[in-house]
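Need Type II secretion protein F's 3D structure for a figure. Predict it.
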Amino acid sequence: MTPSGSDALTQVPAWTMAGCAGLAGALAVSRDPGARRARALMAGRSDERRGPAVLATVRAFFAGRREWLCAPVAAFLALLGESVLPLLAGAVAVPLVRRWLRRRAQRRGREAAADAVTALCGAVVGELRAGREPGQALLAAVRDAGALGTAEPAVLAAARFGGDVAGALRQAAAGPGLGGLAGMAACWRVAVDGGAGLAAGLARLEKALRGEGRRREELRAQLAGAWSTVVVLALLPAVGLGLGAALGANPLGILLHTPGGLVCLVTGGLLEGAGLFWASRIVRAGEAV
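Structure prediction for Type II secretion protein F:
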């Protein structure tokens, strides 16, 4: 006996009906343009979140290791020229660039310390003219300006407990960029031993230190053109290689895979290094004047 339509429907397994319903829903969603746009939007958002995360990771890796940027540049040139010589040059460049970056950071640290000493003198003068005692004035000024480096605890202890402030300042002056503290120590010693006005002496010292800072800035501005010339001379070989490649030549292939090219590469590299060293030495001699 053949079952009726309702009886046949009841005999169909429940999981089969659920599968058919899910398939129908998926087809309906896939045909819906709004759903497709929503999926594309969510995928775009995930890509947008992934991109900044990768960039942040790369930036954090190279934040304190900027000299390692030579490695990807060397790897790119090695792939482009099909030679290991750029990798060797990159390995040599990493310690040289690290040394240059360290020297630049030290120079900036010395200049920042010198500016902080100038600000400290001005702050102490302001506190003294406001009616504070010398020790209290120094404590308040150090809290605002700092500038004592690793010797700050010793100076603060001497100022707080009536110790040898001048001696502590003289010891602190041995730090990089803190030479102005020696003048501050001399003013303090004269004021304590001879009764001279400490505020007047520190005001003159601050004026002298500010004048020295202005001369340093003027000298840096005058030497900016010389440093620009050094940078241009350093980049000229790379510009020449780029022009050769743009004209259809193969400068990297010639330099890296032919005997004459290797001779030219070594000779040019030595001359380039000697020229940069000579120009940098001239500019540094001007900065030291």
